[in-house]
Design brief:
Length: 358
């Protein structure tokens, strides 16, 4: 089912969504008020999901009117949302201020809800099996545009009387680490007790392997879980699938991961998309196990989700089983992921506004 909503009105007021309480208190009329006023606004916005100053009952009516005239709290509007069969996933299409669009996906499993967040419009890295890559380079999302995804999904959960999010993963459209400055600002707000208050252990950032940015993320003030999209065990195969391997060969990425783990004291994850006849041999399984054991990384195997923009097929079930049997005794920790939402093109590797444009 697809549900359409009208976009919100545009105005010239200062947008506060995406800013911390401290940042709110540094601009416009709030800069002239005691700092606790900005914290009150941030609490209403992030903890209660309230976008109307008129409902902020611990502020005077006069102050509410003044703030409403100076600021806006609205997220980017949801144009459509689509529910997968059995509500296993819900995909949201958001319209940005410049008319571009992004997708974000709520993934429902029996014991947790996960939000898959986009960090860019399109992607410049050209991974051959990924639908977003077929859009080509786009632009970085601002902290407000990233946070809008979290905000509208939380509002949806409240409206549907569903339980809160358990995890947020930066695995949607784009390469998060190419947008490092805005990513860090977003992570600070997500983890801020006066913001969304999400613990860092519940947030994962996935990357195709940008070596300098992995090291910069390790040295930043924001802890987060790290996942590396590997998806091949030889340079030849990975370069064919993921051209970024020419600039940052995966063994160089491994060294950056070692550095990250030494700073953060938490295991990273090697993500591996299984493609029929491409990277799913038993030799691949043995090599992947060696990498994981050497790095002491987790392995997350992902069953490929086909789409019309790429020629690949998912590995057959029996080959996946053999791959797992070979890998599991040799690697520290192995999981197998069957993505949800394939019927609405919301699964891993399928996000693209191409579908929305027909």
């Amino acid at each position: 089912m697809t549900v359409r909503t009208l976009p919100s009105r545009t105005d010239e007021r200062i947008p506060l969504l995406g800013k911390t309480a401290e940042e709110m208190g540094a601009i416009g009329p709030l800069a002239e008020l005691p700092s606790f006023r900005a914290r009150q606004v941030a609490h209403w916005l992030y903890s209660r999901g309230e976008t109307r100053f008129s409902e902020m009952s611990d502020l005077s009516k006069e102050l509410r009117a003044d703030l409403d005239a100076a600021y806006t709290l609205e997220p980017d509007p949801v144009v459509t949302h689509q529910r997968a069969e059995g509500d296993e996933a819900v995909k949201f299409l958001l319209r940005l201020g410049d008319g571009k669009s992004i997708e974000t996906v709520l993934i429902n499993s029996p014991h947790r809800r996960t939000l898959c967040v986009s960090s860019q419009v399109g992607c410049a890295y050209g991974c051959d099996f990924c639908a977003t890559a077929k859009m080509g380079p786009g632009r970085n999302l601002t902290p407000r545009e990233i946070v809008s995804q979290l905000f509208v999904v939380q509002k949806f959960l409240r409206t549907e009387q569903m339980s809160d999010l358990h995890n947020v993963v930066f695995m949607g459209m784009g390469e998060p680490l190419q947008n490092l400055e805005n990513l860090l600002a977003t992570l600070r707000l997500m983890q801020d007790p006066e913001g969304f208050g999400i613990g860092w252990r519940r947030i994962t950032v996935s990357t195709v392997g940008l070596v300098p940015q992995i090291r910069a993320l390790a040295d930043s003030d924001v802890p987060v879980r790290l996942a590396f999209s590997l998806s091949a065990t030889t340079d030849e195969a990975r370069t064919s699938l993921m051209p970024v391997n020419k600039k940052y060969p995966f063994r160089e990425v491994f060294e950056a991961i070692r550095y990250y783990q030494s700073i953060r004291r938490i295991r990273a994850t090697l993500e591996y998309v299984l493609l029929d006849g491409v990277n799913d041999s038993l030799d691949d399984a043995v090599r992947l196990a060696g990498f994981a054991r050497d790095l002491r990384c987790k392995v997350n195997l992902i069953v490929y989700n086909p789409h019309p923009l790429a020629p690949y097929r998912p590995s057959p079930h029996d080959r996946i089983e053999e791959f797992m049997k070979t890998l599991y005794p040799l690697a520290p920790s192995v999981t197998l992921r069957y993505s949800r939402g394939k019927d609405i093109l919301a699964a891993c590797g399928q996000l693209s506004t191409h579908w929305d444009q027909g």
